[in-house]
Design a protein that fits this description.
With about 725 residues, the chain is α+β, with helices and mostly antiparallel strands. The chain is about 35% helix and about 15% strand. Strands 9, 10, 11, 12, 13, 14 and 15 form a seven-stranded antiparallel beta sheet that branches. Strands 4-3-7-1-8 form a five-stranded antiparallel beta sheet. The protein has a three-stranded antiparallel beta sheet with strand order 2-6-5. The two termini are about 30 Å apart. About 5% of the residues have low confidence.
């Protein structure tokens, strides 16, 4: 027995020296936090939430080595900490899941600190609990409180300015009005007919303020969304996805649909990605992965991407393309939502993410409008096929389509030729057309070919046979250009700073700005009194017609375009468009008079998402000297998962003897205790055939304990008998 005591003494001495040295030489980072119980009742309850992390702060090794500690009300608590999927560009964690039990009452708030790399935890880790619907719904959380820290984490995949650090006009739009409308909508609950990342908008306010009210509403709203996005098990044909997207069998309202949002309901994937990182709930992760697969599984090369991402089918609107073919890619990249999940009509495959993203960007770039309009009369016969040649003397061109009016749907090939109308053409060679007969088509040109101010626009087909989207109009709704353009901006800032993107965004923006004019008598909002928010001056038509529509001009879309202006100003520089500089346009667009709740808008969560779900980082952009080449120089390759979160977890009962999801000095001491034949009752030791056997010799002894200690200190295991 004296030899056993001597072993324990020597081991403890080595352990204490190493532990002390590690603590005094490491530079710890302390993050101020707050523990909040939202669940009804009082007493001990599980605190479980994702904790956002900035780039460069936490590595997976720190998680595995147990060098992150949680202090609540001045005392360390026994905590289980695990890495969530998703990485920053430098490979460090975007978020970690923190779980511990604590006694407190509903709505109680307790100060806490997270100490990063400040020595190993004092207590054995409690058992990990997979986040479930009930755990997320209880929303008992530990979260950072400092807006400066929160902004540094980029948890909404944006760079944001803390409240009070932007200009007066920016604060009025992005803080005062946003908070005013949040409070009103939290009471009224008006949702609207579409979804535009409202949850992300709420989280942006939380990040900028640290105010937990925004976070709490984001959680409850995202939970409500899940019902709509969850595949049902009774759909026909089979959804194929419910075992991944709803692995616990959550009750759903509709059991016969496959959870794929209609185009106007789709813009929520960035919000789902945010919520995975803030809750660890695997259903949020899987929904993002599912949508990415549905959109891209069939895109296997550049040729298919070019013909299908924008140019497939007859119903072609920027929002539709975003919702059905590429909009989930960036959200999936942020959280490594890479598992192949088959859908009702698609067979999933492992995507090559770098290729998928590059093919998609190339496909969008290939849609640049390159066209002119050739007016005609005396039409007869049938409409020729797209791609046919039309000539007049030495002038030639390629037919893109035939239209009765430039804003009408395309008249399909083989249909009767309209008596009058326009031929959409490109590849004009040999000069310009003029009035007179044409060859290759049975019409007479009534004048020269006419340019289009939308030349160079990307994100939709120039010769699309569009369907009516409102009333009898069939042209592009201008505001839908925000989807493709914001995707391009996010691609540049988050995926790769492709040098084509600034010019693409600038072209789309200039086209939108060219439509804005001072409102005049006859416009609905002319002379409206917007109360304390101001009186609107500028407006624009809803539709993106050529020539620019003289229909009613409205002001309420304008704030959606501020982010584009900020990006263009900081990548392409100042310029004058439609009589004003970009800087002037920015101030005009963020004016709260445009989207005033007095006399202009009846606000809904849909509108809250439109203004703040994408655009909350505009003030941060404006505060930068330049954004040119700001984004990554190359695409980060995400981890390719073959299972949903937690399904891959198996008990690692060799070195992780207490099943805490980390191997540390506690495991070494427990293994030593077991090797000495001491009772393991009352400890966290998890008995199994392999527990503590790290050299795979089928026994656990003091040699294993020393090997575990060596591993927990981060020393090389090369040339040892370590077998894990």
């Amino acid at each position: 027995m004296s030899k056993q005591i001597l072993k324990l003494f020597l081991f403890s001495s080595i352990f204490s020296s190493c532990f002390f040295f590690a603590n005094v030489t490491q530079a710890a980072t302390t993050i101020e936090a707050q523990v909040v119980r939202n669940q009804a009742g009082s007493g001990s309850t599980l605190i479980s939430s994702g904790f956002p992390l900035p780039p460069g702060l936490v590595t997976e090794a720190m998680i595995n080595n147990g060098t992150i500690r949680v202090i609540v009300s001045g005392a360390e608590v026994a905590t289980n900490i695990s890495a969530l999927r998703g990485r920053h560009q430098d490979g460090t964690l975007r978020s970690m899941l923190i779980q511990f039990n604590y006694a407190m009452a509903q709505n109680e708030e307790i100060n806490a600190q997270i100490i990063i790399d400040g020595g190993t935890r004092q207590f054995s880790d409690p058992t990990y609990q997979r986040p479930t619907f009930d755990i997320v719904n209880h929303n008992n959380i530990i979260l950072p409180t400092d807006p400066n820290y929160l902004a540094s984490t980029q948890i909404t995949f944006q760079s944001l300015l803390p409240i009070g650090t932007a200009t007066v006009a920016e604060e009025k739009q992005y803080t005062t009005l946003a908070d005013n409308r949040f409070d009103a909508l939290a009471i009224s609950g008006l949702t609207g007919t579409a979804r535009y990342e409202e949850v992300r908008a709420m989280l942006s306010l939380w990040v900028r303020s640290g105010n937990i009210k925004y976070f709490n509403h984001a959680v409850s709203y995202a939970i409500d969304w899940l019902d709509y996005s969850t595949p049902g098990s009774a759909a026909s044909p089979d959804c194929k996805a419910d075992e991944y997207v709803n692995p616990d069998g959550r009750a759903v309202t509709s059991n016969t649909t496959c959870g794929l949002a209609a185009e106007w309901q789709f813009a929520r994937v960035l919000s789902y990605a945010d919520m995975y990182l803030l809750t660890g709930y695997r259903d949020f992760w899987s929904i993002v992965a599912y949508n990415a697969q549905v959109q891209q599984a069939a895109i296997t090369n550049q040729t298919i991407a070019t013909t299908q991402i924008i140019k497939l089918g007859g119903y072609d609107l920027p929002r539709y393309n975003y919702a059905s073919r590429y909009g989930a890619l960036i959200a999936a990249m942020m959280i490594d939502a890479t598992i192949p999940i088959s859908g009702q009509y698609i067979t999933a495959r492992q995507l090559d993410w770098s290729d998928q993203l590059e093919w998609t960007l190339n496909a969008i770039d290939s849609t640049k409008w390159d066209l002119q309009w050739l007016p005609f009369d005396n039409g007869s016969g049938t409409v020729p096929a797209t791609g046919a040649a039309v000539t007049q003397g030495g002038v030639t061109a390629t037919v893109l389509g035939v239209y009765s009016l430039t804003g009408d749907p395309q008249t399909f090939s083989g249909s009767a030729m309209p008596a009058t109308g326009y031929i959409q053409v490109n590849n004009i060679m040999g000069g310009s057309f003029s009035a007179g007969a044409l060859s290759g088509i049975s019409v007479t040109a009534t004048g020269a070919n006419i340019s289009d101010y939308r030349q160079g626009m990307t994100g939709t087909r120039s010769n699309s046979p569009r369907l009516p989207n409102y009333s009898s109009d069939t042209v592009i709704p201008s505001f839908q250009m925000v989807f493709v353009t914001n995707f391009l901006i996010d691609y540049y800032l988050l995926i790769r700073a492709d040098n084509r993107i600034p010019a693409m965004v600038k072209t789309n923006l200039d086209i939108l700005l060219s439509q804005i004019r001072p409102m005049a008598p006859g416009d609905t909002y002319y002379g409206v009194n917007g109360g304390t928010w101001g009186n609107p001056i500028y407006g624009k038509p809803y539709s993106l017609k050529n020539p620019i529509s003289n229909e009613d001009a409205n002001p309420y879309e304008l704030p959606e375009y501020a982010r584009m202006v900020a990006f263009v100003l900081k990548t392409s520089g100042e310029a004058t468009v439609n009589g004003a500089t970009y800087s002037t346009w920015y101030e005009r667009l963020i004016d709260t008079a445009n989207n005033s709740p007095v006399g202009v808008l009846i606000w809904q969560w849909k509108l809250f998402g439109q203004f703040y779900g994408f655009g909350s980082d505009a003030p941060w952009m404006m505060a930068q000297n330049s954004l040119l080449n700001y984004g990554p120089s190359e695409i980060r390759i995400p981890t390719q998962w073959d299972s949903i979160p937690d399904n891959e977890i198996t008990l690692n009962l060799r070195s992780d003897v207490d099943n805490s999801s980390a191997t540390n000095t506690t495991d070494a001491l427990l293994t030593l205790r077991n090797s000495l034949g001491l009772s393991m009752d009352g400890t966290a030791w998890q008995a199994s055939a392999t527990t503590g056997d790290v050299n795979c010799d089928e026994v656990s002894n003091s040699t294993d304990a020393l090997l575990i200690l060596r591993y927990s200190l981060g020393l090389s295991m090369g040339e040892t008998s370590w077998c894990e």
